[in-house]
Structure formats: C-alpha cells, structure tokens
Amino acid sequence: MPQPVARAQDLLVGYGGAPVCAPVTFTLHPGRALALVGSNGSGKSTVLRAVIGLLEPSGGKLTVLGREVDERTVEFRSAVSSVLDDDAYFPSLSVAEHLYLVARGHGVLDAWDRVDELLDEFGLVDHAAALPVSLSSGQRRRLLLAAGFARPRSLLVLDEPEQRLDRRMLSALTDRLLAEKASGGAVLMASHDPELVRAVADRALHLDDERNELLSAADAATRIARIPA
Q1: Mean residue pLDDT across the chain
Q2: How many domains does the chain have?
Q3: Is residue 112 part of a domain?
Q4: Which is it for the CA torsion 187, 188, 193, 199, positive or negative?
Q5: Rounded to an integer, what is the distance from CA 198 to the centroid of its chain?
Q6: What pLDDT sits at residue 85?
Q7: How far apart are CA 12 and CA 14, in angstroms?
Q8: Considering the domain boundaries, does residue 173 fall inside one?
Q9: What is the mean pLDDT of residues 74-97?
Q10: Of 50, 131, 178, 219, which sits 20 to 30 A from 189 (CA to CA)?
C-alpha cells in the first residue's frame, strides 16, 4: 500500500478552543476520494482549512505526504491544490492571465496549452480576456475551479465544488475528478450533492458534534438527500 496522501487521527478543529465537531480520523491514499458530508455548521469547511494549513488544529495529528501540515514550505505548496468558498483571484488579471500565472508559477512548461484546455473545459473561452469582477458568480466559480486544476498536485481539496454549477458543468467536473483519481491524484472534498458524492467518492465521513461516521459513498448520498443544504 503506498504512503497515504493525507491522514488525520483524532483531529480536533474549531475556534477559540471549542471544537466544531467530534474528533476526525481518516486516511486518504493516492487515486482515492473522500467526501466530508453533514449539515451546515457540522465542521466540513473547518476540517478542510486545517488540512490545507489555514487553521491550526487544537488536538490530534494531521499529516500530508507523511509530514505535519505546514503551508509555508515549498513541498506542501507544491503538493496541495485547493478551492475553497472564497473568490481568491487576481483582480487585475484577465481570466486567461490568471490561469497562466497559476500554471506557470507551479512549473507547467506548456502553460498556455493548459490554459486553453481549461478555458474550453470550464466554458470560459468567451471570457478569456475578461476581468474576474465582470464575471457572473457562476463564471467566477468556474474560474476558481479551473485554477485548481491548472497546476500539478498530489492532493486536491475542494469545498462544495458543486456550488453555482449547472448540471452540464457539474457533469464535466465529475468527469474531471474521476480522471484525477485515475491519474493517481487524491481528492478530499466537502459536498452537499448526492450524485457528485456517489459518482466520485470512495468513502464519505459524516461529521457531527457527537460522533463522526465513515460511510460508503452510496450510503452517504442517501443520507445527504435528507440533510437540509
């Protein structure tokens, strides 16, 4: 069995010393996807922020590629690509320039070819020269997702990637995530979409303030359908 890409053991995350959910334990290997599911406020986004180094855990152990999380290191930044629920773009760069900067900054030699591919895949060809501020909310979300795929990575972390996507684009994202797994990449995502979880995740971790539960993707999808978004 290859080394896990990410591992959490009795991980505690929260704010002001108060945990937002029960201790989190999971192991994520290359070529696999784990979905975090649960109601709003159950701690999904908080766990993801700890995994990518934006929030210091208050307890337990968390490693990425066998090392403690430290987003200041080159090794960690090279390994982890993330898309959270933030409009984190360069406001003075066009859509195409933004994607090029992300790709080239992470060592992609054929960066413009990668940009052309992503513009087409995420339906942004007609907006390549536009500034992000001129885009609709859904188009900005597609830009951020495209940027997450623009660079090399071992771990892809996504916070509700289905937000503001129509069904056609959600289908394209599903295909892209399946390809990510097939190429050996690991995916950790929080999601409220039962079909995305069913199609992409190998397992799911249902978060709760009393007890977290590891589920099959099918069982998680059934449970999501009963959870208020």
Answers
A1: 93
A2: 1
A3: no
A4: positive
A5: 16
A6: 80
A7: 7
A8: yes
A9: 90
A10: 131
Mean pLDDT along residues 146-161: 97
pLDDT at 223: 86
pLDDT, position 227: 67
DSSP 132: G
Do residues 205 and 215 touch, judged by C-beta distance below 8 A? yes
Q: Look at residue 60 in the predicted model and tell me its pLDDT.
A: 95
Does residue 10 belong to any structural domain of this protein? yes
CATH of the domain at 204: 3.40.50.300
- Tokens 């495209």 identify what position? 146
Percent of the chain with pLDDT over 70: 98
